[in-house]
Amino acid sequence: MDDKRKVIILGSEHIGKGDETLGYAIMMTFLETLIKREDRPKAIIFWNTAVKLLVEGSPAVPRLKALEEKGVELLAGRLCLTDLCIADTVVVGKAVSMDEILDVILHNETISL
Fold this sequence. Notes:
By secondary structure, the chain is of the alpha/beta class. It has a single domain (6-112), classed as 3-Layer(aba) Sandwich (Hypothetical Protein Ychn, Chain: A).
């Protein structure tokens, strides 16, 4: 039996290919539904533009805070935050290095959305 925990990797503010507005709505619904479940992932990794979900003013912040309170680690790529000039506006989750991200990826089952 595989004892690895699940980790979700998000690479943008929306889920799926195609219409970005619909993809953003899907992301918000995904996060809202995840809060209600008992079988949540160990962590969610945010890189590339997905880090924008963690900043002040993002509609995702209340949902992400709820997930964090339920024990889900929210890990934001430090390089992405710095490159997008939003490192000072993060209000949920924590900035991590690529080495820390790789530790999580290599020791858990990952799902990329």
